[in-house]
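Thread: Mediator of RNA polymerase II transcription subunit 33A, structure

OP (GT): Posting the sequence first so everyone is looking at the same thing. Length is 737 residues per the record. Can we get the structure tokens written out before standup tomorrow? I want them in the notebook alongside the other entries.
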Amino acid sequence: MVMLMRRHLLLPFFAGHLLFMVRLREHTILFIIGLMLPLVPTNYSGRESHLLNHAPLINVLLTGISSVDCVQIISLHGLVPLLAGALFPICEVFGSSIPNVSWTLPTGEEISCHDVFSNAFTLLLRLWRFDHPPLEHVMVDVPPVGSHFSPEYLLLVRNFQLLSFGLSPRDRLKIKRFSKFLNIAVEPMFLDSFPKLKRWYRQHVECIVSTFSGLAHGTTVHQIVNALLNMMFRRINRGIPTSSGSSNSSSIGCEDAYIGLKVPAWDILEATPFALDAALTACAHGSLSPRDLATGLKDLADFLPASLATIVSYFSAEVTRGIWKPAFMNGTDWPSPAANLSSVEQQIKKILAATGVDVPSLAVGGNSPATLPLPLAVLVSLTITYKLDKASERCLTLVGPALNSLAVSCPWPSMPILASLWAQKVRRWNDFIVFSASQTVFHHNNDAVVQLLRSCFTSTLGCSPHASSTGGVGALLGHGFGSHFLGGISPVAPGILYLRVHRSVRDVMFVTEVVLSLLMTSVRDIANSGFPRETVEKLKKTKYSKRYGEASLASAMTRVKLAASLGASLVWISGGLNLIQSLIKEILPSWFISAHGSEQEGTEPGGMLGMLRGYALAYFAMLCGTFAWGVESTSGVASKRRPKILRAHLEFLASALDGKISLGCDWATARAYVLGFISLMVACSPAWVAEVDVDVLKRLAKGLRQLNEEELALALLGHGGVSAMSTAAELILETGS
């Protein structure tokens, strides 16, 4: 008892300490952002930007916050847009400066404006999810969550945050707490204010959608292209032809190779795609060896680390074009994965089998040679040339995720080949690399997606042989990812695996249909397990039949709600706002209209199973809407779309109650859905009701009255505003008479 009292006394202390640490981290991040972008001094009259005078400090700050952990912490605090707003002017200023001046750090290291620019630019790219390749934008029916990120998007969010900051009581407390220490510019920023960055971004988009051509001979860009090729391939005594048809001379001194690159970093990035195109073309035609190409790319990235962004962008785009011959990973021209490729594939199959996914067609048949698309092979060869040290962390954190996403989208077994090569390089990462490679299966095989989603439902409901019989969130998520369990990778819970692989699923509409089908199947299993026919018939003859039925129904409803919450979570994770709006507006009405064959097996007209299915769909739809829109009246973009989607859905329900629409499902299911959805909307989100057209509410109230649900009809009209009061009064009079 004493120990219990001590614990209760210590809880407020630990909670206060945790809150203090969170506020301290938030304050530290904001303080760093303020230091990175100091305001212009009132008496400053220099021709160059005042930021150049703070180059050593800015570089130290950029280096300190560029680690994976720091970026994750900044993201968790929701301060990514503010940090991006500080990086934009830094990139613009230092990327536009000629590297004639250097600064000496306290460590003795000398840095130039190229170094500061590269640190800022690579961090900015990571903030707007540069790791998603162009293939992702052309192969899926609905863009995945987060793919709308861009520099413009980050600036818009940043402007909105600063515009709305201070309106809530919590924000006003922050202002009082931070105003003495922080000095952050609050003026809105737009991409047009950064012409160099905007020009690069346009070139980046053009690189994705079309090939490069028309490099004019003798222009500044052409001269920089030649200088880049000279620097990259100065070790070989051959010229590399450029896209203009001319050939550069590579037989020059090392110092001379860098003379033409004493130009602003933005100019180098503009010329880099043309140099990459010339180098890749030379490699494809056999005039440049793969080893020399990888070495040249490494030299380019060492000279200007920011060029890694263009390298990733260019080679990712070239993979999507499919115009390059495959590279044979034979160990002679290209690195070979043969030493452990078969082992990696078997480990992938083992991981999936432990989660309830059986894909027998994983292995590559015969002795066919391992191949990769040529641009992908170049990227792989480049990454394995890096040493795993702190100096290379910045490069690998930018290229690594992009390479992983690109390999997932390429034909099988591109990802296992990549995993094999990296597992050979870093054996201690084998388990993590193989686990990451397993997501490829779900990109190429829809049946694997169905099996994984089914495993999520059965584990949560306690029906899976691969999980604890108790079910719940613990069985769904397990204990994360672990290795060296009984000599290998420990089984991964299905929920953790889906969180890892859901971005690899190509068709999110297919996921929604599968989730809906699995939800109905789960409800049928719940009904069958909770209401065995023989037991029910036997208990009907006893005096405890009513009490047993109430307990069984309550238990079944608890599990139905659990299944519905899981289904809503899966849909929200898979497709976000757009998918949920499509679900409520189109998919659910289509489901009610259509006949469902095997899903209706065992359904008695007006029976318990039909009712449970209706309530499951109501909870499912309500939770989906809550995830997408929230429950309150807000000014967000998502909430502005809410009235239109809700009106369409409620009009469908009103038409179903009026008999104007013929339903394909059991009437008990439709009735339970209407009552459940409207009850939840009235009780949990009355702000939704106030946004619906009064005529629609009147039609719904009339239909509810026909179902003898006068109280629910009155509650619905009660939240409909003043214009619905007359209809509510008429309903009260009619009910009283």
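GT: Both are above now. Quick notes for whoever picks this up: Confidence is low (pLDDT under 50) at residues 1-11, 133-147, 483-487. The chain has three domains: 13-40+49-135+148-200, 213-234+262-442, 507-529+549-596+606-736.
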